[in-house]
Each structure stands twice: as structure tokens, then as C-alpha cells.
Design goal:
The structure is a homodimer. By secondary structure, chain A is an alpha+beta fold. Chain A is elongated. In chain A, strands 1, 2, 3, 4, 5 and 6 form a 6-stranded mixed β-sheet that branches. A 3-stranded antiparallel β-sheet of chain A has the order 7-9-8. Chain A contains 9 helices and 9 strands. The first copy, chain A, has 2 domains: 176 residues, Alpha-Beta Complex (Nucleoside Triphosphate Pyrophosphohydrolase); 71 residues, Winged helix-like DNA-binding domain superfamily/Winged helix DNA-binding domain (Arc Repressor Mutant, subunit A), CATH 1.10.10. At the A-B interface, α2 and β4 of A face α2 and β4 of B. The structure holds a DNA duplex. Chains A, B: It comes from Hymenobacter nitidus. Chains A, B: InterPro entries: NUDIX_hydrolase-like_dom_sf (IPR015797), NUDIX_hydrolase_dom (IPR000086), WH-like_DNA-bd_sf (IPR036388), WH_DNA-bd_sf (IPR036390), WHD_NrtR (IPR054105).
Chain lengths: 263, 263
DNA sequence: TTACAATGCGTAAATTCTACGCAATAAACT
DNA sequence: AGTTTATTGCGTAGAATTTACGCATTGTAA
């Protein structure tokens, strides 16, 4: 939503196009230079940051909605996107008093005040998704109601996000760390070809622990999850590292066999 | 809902008490004698079986709703209940044509025909939970609209459950099998004190594979997940097996340490 | 040239996993 | 009563895997 007119239409006719009581919130993880970052946005008039989110169109599947919302924020399609939990317990998801006030502040930018019965004021459960993106490829598009956005290191996320977004992002991180043992997480956070130090540092960053460089390489190669290429990355200081790529076929086969990664 | 009057009230005034567009479906797993069973119900007029389910009250949390629905079906409270996925993709969750017809057949028992705009006819996403119960403790209470219920071996579940319930139960099983390595699953399916053959058979049943009896015992004892008691179960033929109990403290400590069970 | 950091490769020790053997016990059978 | 048999508890050798390093190689910088 990039214009005042679009926002007004959304407020007044959104209930015809979207399902009420349900939203999607998306923890978008991007990796760069030993740091795992999340995309946060600040809506107009809000003091605190939010996760990017949106509503489910009445004629699109849940998965389609999640991808659309992700694409609206990052301009990227076909990304790795994983549903991890639906949130409907926290105080802010029960009584909509705070929600109403918060919403009202934002929508005052287009001169509307949401009545208590308005569809945007009602109790809303949120379906949480997390996405993995190449940090450098993302072009964030600010929307009409978004004052500010930022990529924040996951360690630096403030304690006071709006609603229950702190809970959502914590659960997303926990899920990501559990999934890293069972899915080619790096495939979506790195470029097609990557060096061993790059993927090694990625795993160390996500898991928040040190992993022996040499054993890490051995394990991924032995299981056939990555494949060493002939090319070397010439740029960079000191010795030129080889390039590697994921072997997705082997990866899925290993998953079926029940091979488990441990570090 | 046990009377015609309650059902009529639910149909006509349910939208005031429950959130539309959302339901909870529950895969209730019970274990007994080497077999993993699921509770299925058959609504009035339906040819196919369903998972037990219900709606979310406007003034209860999502978790409260799940426990209430479970208690309504099994008369048991405080059970292990785990949310695992929210379903909003399948054809039956997109167009509500089939849903309308199916619903209408059931509600014809109380003489109502649901109009297209009726809250029960609208598109509904379903939040999936799975529960683990002691099969023998459950007292299933048939409701007014339920013609029949049964405990069906998970291997014998028919291919034609209503809506996307086959998909839901498959995902529940997959999740259960993944969680068995990280949570004291047996704690909720067995009694407080159990014998080694009992828990061994439970794990074999859930994982659908044979596990060496002796290594299985060694692993659980070494990790401190179960504790051997002095008592022996005198009943039963042949040698009297010792009784064991879960060591929940050690269990949660092992989880934090990241110890992983493998069989 | 030399020092140094980054990268790739190997190996020995420690640990864990796996596949069994076997004794002890209690019921069933001759 | 003695024998057979199924069930349970416990141990152990060998295989496999994990872990902790050593070290040579390469490119950059002093």
C-alpha cells in the first residue's frame, strides 16, 4: 500500500477482500558478515518496532498469502518460507484495547479512527512464518504507513516490540536453530556458490556456538550435502578458498534416510 | 453440544461466541498393546470420518480453546497438547462449496439449512493440535451431531477423511515422530510407573521400526531420562520386570544441553 | 625474505553405536 | 519334580563416529 487512497480503500473495504481475525507475521532473517539480522518496520506514529505482516486474501491460499506479503516487503519471490506457529494466547491477542489504540495512532495518518467494531480492531490471531533471504539482494520498499525500517542484529532486538512480536521472533529463532539440522538452510542465505569459511561462519552465527572448522567441512562433505567445485574465489586476502555448492539431491536423500547433523 | 437446543443455539448465535474463519482440529493419539490409535468421529449424515475439532471462543486463549475441545471429547484435562501446524491451503479450505454441502447434511439433523453467508459456511482455516492420551483412561462422550466414534489404528486410517483431515493427521504423525526425540512423549502415553518392555514397545510402535531392547535401555538410562525403581511388577508371566519412571528434571536438562536421542 | 594469517587435508584418541551373548527368573509342560 | 521355554536384565567386543588437534600450503604484508 503506497498511497493514501490505497490505505483508505484497505480500511473501508478490506474486510471484503481479506479474512478478519487472522494475520500473518513474518520474521525475515538475513545474514551478512557473521551477523544474523531481522527486518523490522516502524509504522506511522508507533514508538516500537514490528515484524512485517499482512492479511490473508479471501481467494488466496495461506501459502500464497505468505509469499505475497514477503514479496511486498522484500521484492523477492520464490524464497524459503516456513510456517512455524500460530499465536493466539498473549494478552495483546486477547483483549483488543491496546491493539485498537495502537492501530488508531497509525491510521490517523489517513484521517480515520477505527470504531470498536471495525474489522481491524477485532481480535486477531497471527500465523508466524520465517523467511531466509540473501541480505544484500533485498530491496526494502517502504509503504505509506511505514515510517522507518531497519535490519537489526538478532542479538540487538529491543525488548519492546509491538504486541507479542518479541514472542514470535524468539520462537522463530528457536525453530530456525532446530531446522538447521534438517534442512539446507544455507541454501537460501548464501549465494549459489560459497566458500567454506562463509558457510561455516553462517552456522556458527545461527547456532551461537563455535564449530571446529575442519570437522565441519568433513561432515558436510562426507554426507554429500555440499560439493566442492574446481573454481577458487581469487579475491580476498591470503589463501584463495575453493567454492562449494549445495547438493540438494543428496540433501533430500539424506533427510529421508534420517541422517542427522550434529555439531 | 448434547441437545438439539444447544446445537440450534450454536448455529444461530455461535458467531457471537466464537471466532469465524478459524477452527481447531485435534489428532488424539492413544497407545495400547503395541498399537497407536487415533480417535475419529463421524458426524450425522456423513459417510467419512473426521478428526474431533471445535471453534475458538472469543474470550478464551488459543491454548484454552484447544484444551477445552480436547476435554469435551475425552473428559480428560491437563493432557499433553501440542500445536503443530495451521492449514489453509487445500482445495476444501479455499472454496467452500464442498464444505457447505457437507455441513448442511450434518445440520439437517436439527432442521437448519446453512445459507452461503452463514458463519459456518465461510472459509475456515484450521489450527492443528495433537494430543497424547492414555488410551484406557479416555471416556468418549458422543455429542448430539456425532453418529459414531472409533479408535482406529493409525495404519488403518481410511484415505477418505472429510476435508483435508488426511493431510492433518499425516502431518501430526510426522511431527510426533520428530518430537519423540526431543520430548518425554512416553510420559503422557504411559502411566507414571512403567516397565521397560512397555516403553520400548511404545517407541517401536511410534517410530515404526525395531529398536534393540538392550541398547534402548542403555541409552535412556545413560542419559538419565528414566530412573529404575526398586519395585518389580509381580503380575505377568515369566520373569518379573522392574518398574521405571521418567526423570523429568534430567529430561529438560538434557534438552537444554542439546543431547539428541537416536535409535 | 620473512612473518603471519587463512585455508585445506590428515590422523590418533576418545567416545558412541551396534550387534550380539548369556545368565536369571517365572510360567508351562512332561 | 524336573525340564523346557519365553521374557527380562546386564555385559562386552568390534565397528563406526565424533572430537581434538597437527601441519603443510598459499597469498599478503612488513
Amino acid at each position: 500500500m503506497n498511497t493514501r487512497q490505497e490505505v483508505l480503500d484497505f480500511v473501508h473495504h478490506g474486510a471484503e477482500r481479506f479474512l478478519p481475525h487472522l494475520s500473518i507475521d513474518c520474521a525475515i532473517f538475513g545474514y551478512h558478515d557473521h551477523e544474523l539480522k531481522t527486518l523490522l518496520i516502524r509504522h506511522h506514529g508507533q514508538e516500537n518496532w514490528s515484524l512485517p505482516g499482512g492479511y490473508i486474501g479471501r481467494h488466496e491460499t495461506l501459502t500464497e498469502a505468505a509469499h505475497r506479503i514477503l514479496a511486498e516487503k522484500t521484492q523477492l519471490t520464490g524464497l524459503f518460507l516456513q510456517q512455524f506457529y500460530t499465536f493466539g494466547d498473549s494478552a495483546t491477542r486477547m483483549n483488543n484495547i491496546k491493539t485498537e489504540q495502537t492501530h488508531n495512532t497509525t491510521y490517523s495518518k489517513v484521517g480515520v479512527s477505527l470504531s470498536p467494531g471495525h474489522w481491524l480492531s477485532e481480535r486477531t490471531l497471527s500465523i508466524g512464518y520465517y523467511a531466509l533471504v540473501d541480505y544484500l539482494q533485498v530491496v526494502v520498499t517502504p509503504e505509506f504507513l511505514v515510517d522507518e525500517y531497519c535490519w537489526l542484529n538478532v542479538a540487538d532486538i529491543p525488548q519492546e516490540l509491538v504486541y507479542d512480536h518479541n514472542e514470535i521472533i524468539q520462537k522463530a529463532l528457536l525453530t530456525l536453530r532446530a531446522h538447521i539440522f534438517q534442512q539446507p538452510i544455507g541454501y537460501n542465505l548464501l549465494r549459489d556458490k560459497f566458500t567454506l569459511p562463509e558457510i561455516h561462519s553462517l552456522y556458527e552465527t545461527i547456532l551461537c556456538k563455535q564449530i571446529d572448522r575442519r570437522n565441519f567441512r568433513k561432515k558436510l562433505l562426507t554426507l554429500g550435502l555440499i560439493r566442492q567445485l574446481d573454481e577458487q574465489k581469487k579475491i580476498g586476502p591470503h589463501r584463495s578458498p575453493f567454492l562449494y555448492e549445495f547438493d540438494l539431491e543428496n540433501y533430500s536423500r539424506a533427510l529421508e534416510d534420517g541422517s542427522i547433523l550434529t555439531f
